[in-house]
Amino acid sequence: MSRHQHVRLMASYNAWMNAKLLEAALELPEAELIANKKAFFGSILGTLNHLVVADTIWLNRFASHPARYSALEPLVSLPMPDTLDQMVCPDIFSLQARRKLLDDIILDWAEAVTEADLDYVLHYANTKGVPADKNFYSLVMHFFNHQTHHRGQITTLLYQVGIDMGITDLVALIPDEL
């Protein structure tokens, strides 16, 4: 499997897991979603918001790639978050809509990424303004790994309130090779 095929697989896994998480979160009362669970971003809703924030920031950085991915153009209508813990979506329903929008953008963008695009060195500044020049493919892998990391936290928080997410492993989407 080539690197750009890996990007597509990760985008599919990302959308699949986000849909599963939101379906589970929708079973909870609002009080449970906003309760401080002492996680990195406090609550289940806070952690889900962090993923929306981080995805928005990273996708905006990816939009500066010389390939000028048209799939990333819908980002211009989204406000840029100010902080990594910003509650850009105050409730689960607005978060569900934003998450779906972002996942659709990510799926379309992943289809557009070519093997040659992945060799580019992306220049960007982090949220503190520190400049960086990093390999685009490595940043894309970080983008997906970051989501997986925080979704793991959310699945733990859901499990603590009685919701078992079932299979969450990437291997569920990796096709058999015969």
The strand order across the widest sheet is 1-2
Q: Specify the overall morphology.
A: globular
Instruction: Spell the H/E element sequence.
Output: HHHHEEH
Look at the helices and sheets and give the structural class: mainly alpha
- Strand residue percentage: 5-15%
Summarize the structure.
The chain has 178 residues and is mainly α. Helix content is 52%, strand content 6%. The two termini are 14 Å apart.
Could you walk me through the main structural features you see in this protein, from its secondary elements to its overall organization?
This protein has 178 residues and is mainly alpha-helical. It contains 5 helices and 2 strands, in the order H-H-H-H-E-E-H. It has helices spanning 3-25, 30-34, 44-62, 92-112, 136-160, and strands spanning 121-125, 131-135. It has a two-stranded antiparallel ribbon with strand order 1-2. Helix 1 packs parallel to helix 5. It starts with a helix and ends in an 18-residue tail after the last helix.
Task: Describe this protein with a few key phrases.
single chain, 178 residues, mainly alpha, 6% strand, globular
Task: Please write out the topology.
Blueprint (H helix, E strand, L loop, with lengths): L2 H23 L4 H5 L9 H19 L29 H21 L8 E5 L5 E5 H25 L18
Antiparallel strand pairs: 1-2
Helix pairs in contact: 1-4, 1-5, 3-4, 3-5
